[in-house]
Amino acid sequence: MYGKDKGGILQHPDGTVLKQLQPPPRGPREQEFYNKVYDSDCCDSVLLELREYLPKYFGVWSPPTAPNDMYLKLEDVTRKFNKPCIMDVKIGQKSYDPYASAEKIQQQVSKYPLMEEIGFLVLGMRVYHVSSDSYETQNQHYGRSLTKETVKDGISKFFHNGYCLRKDAIAASIQKIEKILKWFEGQKQLNFYASSLLFVYEGSSQAPAVRLSDITLAEKRGVPKGLLSGGDILEYNNNIHVISSTENGKIEASVSKGLSKFYALHKKAYSKRHHSQLSLKVESLEQGNMWKSSTCIAQEHLNGNVIPQLEKVFCHMPAEIKESANVEVRMIDFAHVFPSNTKDEGYVYGLKNLITVLKNILDN
Fold it and tell me: Membrane-crossing residues (predicted)?
């Protein structure tokens, strides 16, 4: 079989992930959703904007040895991260669709009765702890154990790296959820049930080097001629300049003394809708002596002085740069998406409550 199992998702050699189609009607419904959103002839502005919040879709795939096994071929959202911290949060007041049986409804409500009240459910998380160089994993039972009183602390656990709270990742996550919320408040075409938000942020104190190999083959095929081929691309963005080189097949980043390397590579190298250039966008910052060194905190230097250093890098950042954290928030799981002529109030309700919880974590 191709690739390795990644929590139920298979890895394709070209860097995409393979999600096996569920039995009918769920699998065909999810495939139809992706086909509609990513139709090359699509001119619906609502669906075109929706692409920004989904993993990229590269059609369906079957292994040569089992042509009847169908997989959705999707972007691996975690691929660009060094130590990805991942959380899956189901959104909406109902985790069952309008066609669910009474038995199914009862089953779903009994699993997490609080979902109707707060509008979301933590399905699981995987958090990298800098101090131990290891991951902590929580499954769906952890999320179901959370109450109205403990959900804030339960989610904050995802943003704690063993030393401090990653306020930069929280702020960036809020910003991305707010964009998704704006889309939902402006559309009346689709209603989503049992769908999730996938959160990913960089847990390592070292920014990953962006290699051409980290751009999937499927994405490379869509890159305009010359962008990733011979010759150097040189672009200056205030505190950061990026030099792409074909030597060793990688893109090397050099960061000026005013900013930690942690923020060097925080934007996608290529997107389907804006693929005319490879850029990194970072606001120009003047923070005096706050950022005295451009070097990252190496793992071997995690000693008795690490807490104030890590707090400087991760915790006490100026508000202007919190949104620069290497964070992805994508919508996933679309086996229960249905046409509609009304706003998806349940999903909107869940997003608003999740934003409120994250803001409370950030403020406190």
Answer: none
